[in-house]
Structure formats: structure tokens, C-alpha cells
Amino acid sequence: MRRKKGAGGPNNSYLISFGDTMTALLAFFIVLNSLASEQTGVNLYSGTGSFIRATDELGVPGIFEEKLSRSPMQLDHTPPVYIVPNTSDEQSGTGPDEESDSLYIRDREQQELERVLFELERFHEHSGVEETDLGVAFDRMTPLPSSESLIDGEMRKLLIEIAPFARRKDSILKIVAWTPSPGPSVWARSAERAALLAFQISDQLQLPQKKRREIQAVSQLWPYSDIKRPSMTIIATRRRQESSF
């Protein structure tokens, strides 16, 4: 009969058992730590991840066949209320605006300015500026000559300045002889001088017949009492362009 071998000497097999034990403990604590970090507050009540899988066989009976309920408490029990903060960094506004009012805003400052201007226009009545013709007026402050010819040296200097504009196709000349009083005789004499001025000015500027017919000669009463009255005024304006629409 074979003889049983005796026990051998000391060996390192205990190190293998110790290593396996430490590995198992490490895995256990890792799982325990992950469960502990998840099963707090609202996660504990609603169930997330491993907690849902872990409670398949835990709870109260009633709503699943052959298994226990996933609810860790009775269904008629009032659930706890947890206020979960919103950790989302995404803007909830529409467009580049940060305010979540469901309105598309290109630029909030621009929108506010337009709204203020609209309200001002709505509450305050305003009238538009009347359209004016582009032109220039030349006043002669000294009296006109009493002779037959009204074109003297001062008038020639004035006409030299007006000539480039007066010869334009779209220009219109208006000769105004200012009358000091509204009397009929004074007014009639002033109108005659205005007509004579228009005739002599057109000759001096050598205007064509079409431009001569367009010259306006009028006599008007000076409307200002606190401003010195000129003897005559030449108003040169541009003809208003007709719209093509």
C-alpha cells in the first residue's frame, strides 16, 4: 500500500487568496460607492440605473405577475416633492436673445428702440415738413434806378452770379418787386417795374425764347415790419422732377 505523502513546506499560496479577497472587496466598494452616489433625493424615489435593476425583486406586491412591484412604497402614499435645479446651460430663448419669451428677437435693444419710437408716434401728432424747391434768392437792397434802363453796375454783378444757374434747362427765374404799401397805384407801378426787369434781365442773360416765357414777374407786399425791405429779389429755383411711377 502506497504511503501518503506528508505535508509540504511553506509556500506562497496565501498571497493568491489575499489578492482575490482584496480584488473582490475593491469591486464591492466601487459598486457600493456608485449606488450611494445615485440613490439620494429624487433618484432614490424615481430609480435610475442600477437601482431600477436592483429593485426588480424588491418592493410591495401588486402590479407585476410573479414579481414584486418596482415601487418601494405603497401607491396611495404621497410621494415626496424634490425641487431639482436646472443645470442646463443652453439658452431657451428663440434666436440670439437670452430671454425665454418664445419671441424671435434679432436685437433686443433695436426692438426696444423701435417700440419706443412707435409709441411716441402714436401718442404725439406730428405734421410732415412741407416739400420745398431747391433754389436761391438774391436781394438788392439799394433802390432801383429811376431811368429807363434798370440794369446798372450792381445789377450786372448780380446777374453774373445768377447766369450759370439761369441757363440750366431745369431752372426757373422769378422776379419780385417789393411794394412798400398796398395802395393800387403803388402796386400797379411796382408790377410794371417787375415786368420791365424780367424783360431786361432776359436780354442781359441772352436767354432763349422758351426760357424767357418761363420767367415770372410779380409784385408783392413786403410782409416784415422789423426787417429792412429790399427793392427787388431774384429767386432762382429748379423745376421739380416728375415721378415716373
From TrEMBL:
Q: Where are the transmembrane segments?
A: 12-32
Q: What is this protein called?
A: Motility protein B-like N-terminal domain-containing protein
> Has UniProt tagged this entry with the keyword Transmembrane?
yes
Instruction: Region Disordered: list its residue ranges.
Output: 83-102
| Pfam families assigned to the protein according to its UniProt record, in alphabetical order | MotB_plug (PF13677)
Q: Which GO terms describe its cellular component?
A: membrane
**Location within or outside the cell:** Membrane
Chief localisation class? membrane
Q: Which residues form the Motility protein B-like N-terminal domain?
A: 4-37
Decide whether keyword Membrane is in the record: yes
